[in-house]
């Protein structure tokens, strides 16, 4: 004999499933978590560009400050399309002087991630051709009184409009700024 179900006349059966409101709350929470995750991850190339630009600017300020403190002279920033290094002028004899890359954890040489970052250098309003991967040439001279060769260094993501600039003034100010796309 089957057991009879007894219900009170005003009672409803137990609810099965989720209400529309519960589903909407869960969907909103999932959307918020996904949005926060995408913000924290961001565009890897843009983040790398920002990081490399800030690193170069901070290194340039460090080298300037070091020269101001020590009073040494004859330093320069050498740029290539694949990276940068700070250089010092070595006196070999009375007639021979050569620029040599500093082997230093902060001052370089530093290579950019391959095929990601491209470098351009503007001196006196004109772009200067940079060597691909051979030796280092001095591009921006640093003086022991804080002065530097005025220049604009542009780093950009290869094959993209993402660009950031580092402006270097004669007085030794180093400023990083987002660049507007060329067009």
UniProtKB/TrEMBL annotation:
Keywords linked to the UniProt accession: Cell inner membrane, Cell membrane, Membrane, Methylation, Transmembrane, Transmembrane helix
Regions that span the bilayer: 20-41
Keyword flag Transcription: no
Primary location recorded for the protein, binned into one broad class: membrane
UniProt-listed Gene3D superfamilies: minor pseudopilin epsh domain
Subcellular location: Cell inner membrane
Topological category with respect to the lipid bilayer: Single-pass membrane protein
One Pfam family it belongs to: N_methyl
The keyword Transmembrane helix belongs to this UniProt entry's keyword annotation: yes
InterPro entries referenced in this protein's UniProt entry, alphabetically: N_methyl_site, Pilin-like, T2SS_protein-GspH, TypeII_GspH
Family matches, as NCBIfam families: IV_pilin_GFxxxE, typeII_sec_gspH
Official protein name in the record: Type II secretion system protein H
């Amino acid at each position: 004999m089957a057991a009879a179900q007894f219900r009170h006349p005003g009672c409803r059966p137990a609810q099965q499933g989720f209400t529309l409101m519960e589903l909407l709350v869960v969907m909103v929470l999932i959307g918020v978590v996904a949005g926060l995750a995408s913000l924290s991850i961001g565009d890897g190339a843009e983040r790398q560009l920002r990081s490399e630009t800030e690193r170069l600017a901070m290194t340039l300020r460090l080298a300037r400050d070091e020269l101001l403190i020590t009073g040494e002279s004859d330093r320069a920033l050498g740029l290539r399309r694949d990276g940068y290094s700070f250089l010092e002028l070595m006196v070999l004899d009375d007639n021979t002087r050569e620029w040599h890359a500093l082997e230093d954890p902060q001052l370089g040489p530093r290579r950019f991630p391959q095929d990601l970052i491209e470098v351009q250098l503007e001196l006196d309003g004109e772009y200067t051709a940079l060597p691909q991967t051979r030796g280092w040439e001095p591009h921006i001279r640093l003086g022991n009184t804080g002065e530097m060769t005025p220049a604009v260094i542009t780093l950009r993501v290869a094959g993209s409009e993402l660009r950031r600039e580092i402006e270097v003034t004669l007085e030794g100010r180093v400023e990083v700024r987002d660049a507007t796309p060329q067009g």
